[in-house]
Each structure stands twice: as C-alpha cells, then as structure tokens.
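Practice problem: predict the structure.
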Amino acid sequence: MACDLFGMFCEVNEELDASNYRVDWIRQLLSLFADRDEKVVTSAWGALDALVKSIDKEELEELVVPLRRSIEATGSQGSQVPGFCRPKGIQPIVPILLAGLLSGTQEQKEQASYGIGDLVQRTSEAAIKPYIIQLTGPLIRVISSGTIAAQIKGAM
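Answer:
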C-alpha cells in the first residue's frame, strides 16, 4: 500500500527535503483514519507516525493549524474515528498539538486547543485516557499564564 511505502520513505530519508508536502500528507493520512478497512487505517497510522517522527521538534508547531483542520474534517463531531480509537491512535498527533500549545504563536495555541477538543469528540474514552494528563497539563500551564489572549481562553 502507498502509505506503507511513504512510511518507509520517512524512516530512511535523511537527504531529501519534503517539508513542502508535510501538510498534504497530514491531510491525506488523517482522512484515511476514518476508513472502514482496518488495513488502510493501520497503514495510514504507521505512515503518519513515521512522518511526525521524521520532523524536527522545532518545526512541529507549523503543522498545528493544518492538523486541526484535518482533525475537524475527519469524521463528524461526536462520532468516533477508527484511527483515533485504536490503541495509541492519537500518539502521532499529540506532539504536534503540544508543540503548538507550548511554543506556538497565539493562533497556533488557539488552534491546538481547538484541535484537542475536536480530537476528544472523535476518540473513544479508552483510547484518549492514556493522553489526558499529557494534554491537560500544557492546557493548564497556558491558561494560567498571565499573557493569554481571549481567543485562546475561549478555545480552551
């Protein structure tokens, strides 16, 4: 499957700069998280995990806004997305959201907050439970800081 090949590409590629295509890949791979075929979901999850691991941590916050829009477009509010509900299903997404919350711009912090909310609405309780502390800690830290914009407070 193409996702498997892309995942391998991300794992072994160290020379080619594919940063211009990251947003496109995130959109495509996240849309496959809602597929009914478990093999497609598994392949998309592996490719997204490999993609995120291949990106420097300093560059992750750039992906917050497109990630949030992709989460919002995947499935529907209140319905569970198969790729999010599997064990460790949201693991590749969490580092991007945390980077946005902790070191992003005001817009990235706001979109990361909305992204977490969208993710919670599309993930089963059992699948999100291991990530609750990891996600709420930075939310609390951001909201308790004195220089937080009203939009971010509203998003939280």
